[in-house]
Write a structure and sequence with these properties.
The complex is a heterodimer of chains A (59) and B (352). Chain A is built from one helix and three strands, in the order E-E-E-H. By secondary structure, chain A is an alpha+beta fold. Classes of the chains: A alpha+beta (59), B mainly beta (352). At the A-B interface, strand 3 and helix 1 of A face strand 17 and strand 19 of B.
């Protein structure tokens, strides 16, 4: 499952998505094969979880 | 006595960097040397496994190798699949970047002939195969070779006339797909020995041994070389540091330490000048690990507090060469102050 990341405060856009199974951060770069896999997930009807701002620090 | 002319002739016969395959001698295994068992995993750098069947396998870097080599990759069938379906496969592969394949002129009238050579051994004798294809999966050449003796290293060469048709990428995308078949179902093979326009991905040649049908069957490979020309020259042994750098264009891992300078209005952003060991092919996917706990997706503050990494921004160079050179800033989900140091180990993936 994927989760959209927060809007980047510098670009004003969502720049990447996180694979929740691996914690891998995937950039929106068409040349990146993990991003290509994400696009296939979307093409097959998959929906990423929305971004949120409530992740908390863990110790 | 060797003359200057003879030396020049020898040098021109075996030019440096003639091998388009990276890590062909299977020495580099940045992800570790434990056995891998799932589709898409890498027993060594640049060579992942493609697997889809009802059987199971393990693949691992080992030290069993022919003279002149120190390593090979060994596949073992751990669960047999007695009936291979039409689309089922077990493959060892490398995709060559278009930038490193462009000079061969494939897809044009000037396409150059190449020779694929490698050392292989198996517990099963018979006809094995593989293929070379383009990024679009619509042009494939299948090849076959015979393993005549069980558990014996054999040297194979296959000469392939360059493809004058199709579209072959010359940029940071897939220039060529190189497959070695261990198992390939009926929909994934074609007759060996000629270029064909295909409706999809072709992995090997008709008549391929189905290694997955035999429990505990083994298959080893090393010394993989793809070079311009009609003959297979001796394997090009490159310095280990050079080979590692070639691998790191596609995958690298290492430690990140930062004494963050808070930027912008949020203390959840911090800048870093983390520079890659080697510029990477594309913007990489990144996974952070807290050093103490090993927790993924985390960066660790001095004292043990872990912060979830939310986003990473990478920087490219300005020379016009398409590559990505380092991390500019990282966004975490919880506030930090300028007085703390942060650390993580990072895995960066930009494989084809």
């Amino acid at each position: 499952m994927y989760k959209l990341n927060d809007v980047d405060v510098f670009s004003g856009k969502v720049e990447c998505v996180k694979n929740l199974e691996t914690s891998q951060i995937i950039p929106f770069d068409p040349a990146n094969t993990d991003y290509q896999e994400y696009l296939r997930f979307l093409a097959e009807g998959g929906q990423p979880l929305p971004a949120d701002d409530d992740e908390q620090t863990t110790e | 006595m060797t003359t200057a002319a003879e030396l020049a002739s020898y040098a021109s016969s075996f030019p440096s960097f003639r091998n388009r395959i990276i890590n062909g001698d299977m020495r580099i295994a940045q992800r570790g040397t434990s056995a891998v068992t799932v589709n898409g995993s890498y027993p060594v750098d640049r060579f992942p496994t493609t697997h889809a069947s009802d059987g199971a396998f393990s693949a691992q870097q080992v030290t069993d190798a022919p003279a002149g080599f120190t390593n090979s990759v060994k596949y073992t069938v751990t669960t047999a699949d007695a009936s291979i379906g039409a689309t089922q496969i077990l493959l060892f592969r490398q995709f060559i970047e278009g930038n490193d394949f462009a000079d061969l002129g494939w897809g044009t009238a000037n396409a150059k002939t190449v020779t694929l050579s490698f050392w292989v051994r198996s517990s099963v004798t018979g006809t094995f195969g593989g293929s070379i294809g383009n990024n679009a999966n619509d042009r494939y050449y299948s090849y076959s070779y015979n393993i005549s003796s069980t558990d014996t290293w054999e040297y194979k060469t296959i000469t392939i006339v360059g493809d004058t048709s199709g579209t072959w990428l010359t940029d940071t995308g897939i220039g060529a797909r190189i497959y070695f078949g261990l198992t390939a179902g009926a929909d994934r093979v074609q007759a060996a020995g000629s270029w064909q326009t295909t409706a999809g991905f072709i992995a090997s040649a008709t008549g391929q041994v189905q290694l997955l049908e035999t429990l505990n069957a083994t298959w080893y490979i090393t010394g993989v070389q793809l070079e311009e020309g009609t003959v297979g020259t001796p394997f090009e042994h490159r310095p280990i540091g050079t080979e590692l750098a070639l691998c790191q264009r596609y995958y690298q891992q290492g430690p990140l330490t930062a004494f963050p300078t808070v930027i912008g209005s949020s203390s959840t952003y911090f800048a870093t000048n983390f520079r890659f060991a080697t510029p990477m092919r594309s913007t990489p996917s990144s996974t952070f690990f807290a050093p103490s706990s090993g927790n993924s997706g985390k960066i660790e503050q001095w004292g043990g507090t872990e912060h979830t990494v939310s986003s990473v921004n990478f920087g490219s160079n300005n020379s016009g060469i398409p590559q990505v050179e380092g991390i500019q800033y990282v966004i975490i989900s919880s506030a930090i102050t300028v007085s703390v140091s942060l650390g993580a180990s990072i895995k960066l993936n930009s494989e084809l």
